[in-house]
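Re: export button greyed out
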Amino acid sequence: MRQFFAFVIKEFYHVFRDPKSMLMLFGMPIMLILLFGFALSNEIKNSKIVICDFAQDPASQRIIDKIEASKNFEIKKFLYDPRQIEQAFKEGNVKLVVVIPNHFNDDLLHLHKAQIQVIADASDPNTANTLTNYVTNIVMDYQQEITPFNDLPQKITTEIRMIYNPELKGTTNFVPGVMALVLLLVCVLMTSVSIVKEKEKGTMEVLLVSPMHPLMVVISKAVPYLFLSIVNLSVILLLSVFLLKMPINGSVGLLFFESSLLILTALSLGLLISNGAQSQQQAMLISLMGMLIPVLLFTGFMFPLENMPLPLQIIANVVPSKWYYIIVKSIMIKGLGLTAIWKETLILLGMTVFLLSVSINKFKIRLG
Amino acid sequence: MADVVLNHISKTYNKGEVKAVTDVSFEVEKGELFGLIGPDGAGKTSIFRVLTTLLLPDAGSASVNGLDVVKDWKAIRKRVGYMPGKFSLYQDLTVEENLNFFATVFNTSVAENYDLIKDIYVQIEPFKDRRAGKLSGGMKQKLALCCALIHRPKVLFLDEPTTGVDTVSRKEFWEMLKRLKEQGITILVSTPYMDEATLCERIALIQDGKILSIDTPAQVVKQFPKNLYAIKSERMSQLLRDIRHLDYIDSCNSFGEYHHITFRDEDDYEIQKKLIADLNSKNHEYIEFKATPATIEDCFIKLLDQHE
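Workaround output, generated via the alternate export path:
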């Protein structure tokens, strides 16, 4: 046990004394989060919109006034023919169309129920999402305004239609994606490079000719990175909660548990790479090429997996971050518990066990 | 039983394409300082790695401290000290941190075996807070030796410990080895420097993975079959070429400021006179000619010639 702690301390010295490792460990996640944070600036001003007011009654007028007063919107024009709506989008820079149907005021007064349709250009999903929220808020605002004067509550339903990207992948999806990316990259890279470094510098030779079991060497190497990755994870979560206003609706403990599972998968993968790689550059290249591209492509946070051809969807199944991404989204956004994600957790666990046993099996107790 | 035993050990790389070690057998007695002498690429490191259980031999068997290198690798790793040819400590850790780390890895502490490394450690102690990467070559080797000794090994393997180290440090290093030997530690050391061979108790001369000779340095020198002469003139490279063209010369090799020569058949005053006369006729002046005792290097070259 004393050996183990000495080894772990030594490993921390390596990390803390190497500016490159520090940058990799802590600089990269913070940078990525901040980068995505700025890309996610949620306030959008002066968006050009089109109004189709078929009702032309006091209620519709009131809502239009409210929209016009908002600094988020700039009404570009009024249309009275639904067939022109698509044309307006295609002409460009129109982000959103608000359609108020006939008899809006009548429906509201007599049926206590009316509808407004909001059509948004979701080719930029973040913007579309934000803008529809603004409209919904304005409509809600109006609804509250009129409710006190009536005994029966009147209900306006805003029907939102996203066009061009109905899945609306975006915003909240980035944080889980970045988490998967950072944890996988950092862990795989750091473990593989640090083990190969021992080989390259010849220190592995000395460590092998010691009473310490070779596997112990590897385990003691994995522990510091597991610890540092959890620190890293906490930093990412703090940044995303306080800077990006990203909620954690589910259990934080479960989130850390699932993340630790991914970290273990990554550590085993790093170990596997270090078995084959001969130099630090080689290890770095394999880790980067082997991780970055699959993670970016097949996790689902950049490109929706559903839109991919079937062979690629099948390939995506072997990328651990795909499952982790589903898990994190379920916990953070949907606030679900283990019962909802046990399948994904099991898959991730299976991957970890498989990778770990392969890499331990292939681990060389000798040189060459 | 001898402390280190090699029995017809062979080792190849790249699936037999490169023959590193071929049928090597020798024994090192307990408490002996044994030298493996040979140029780069002779197979010294491969032999060390087989003995330290880092490589599996293709053929033959070997034992260290009575333990089989293949079967008992775990036990061997507990009782040997190994210093690889390449500096293999953590460059980003200080002298003290390195020493403490290796002490712990070997399940001991610096204090426990301080008496063994004291002589060496005091020399690097003033730099104990310096990172190992910032030490000079000689200092690095002393630190590496300390780390290899920290668990009081039964057998010490030193692979080219003096390569790239200045003359003074080399001398100090060998004196340390002698003191360690007195502690009863069996030491197997390799070196490409022939002049260091005389500092060992017994040596094995090795070339192309084959042992040429195993004996005490004195005996190796004694077995040199001919009288050896040293010769020099003011044009040394021309002298070498001219002498090699003479048919009564057996060998002529450059050796420091002299060339070392042996005669083919007759070796008397007459032939020596003839040599001087022949060289004079080729315009060599200020010729100095004298008998000289053979060194390990002379023997090595001779053995190589015989081998080929």
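Chain B is about 35% helix and 25% strand. The button fix ships in the next patch.
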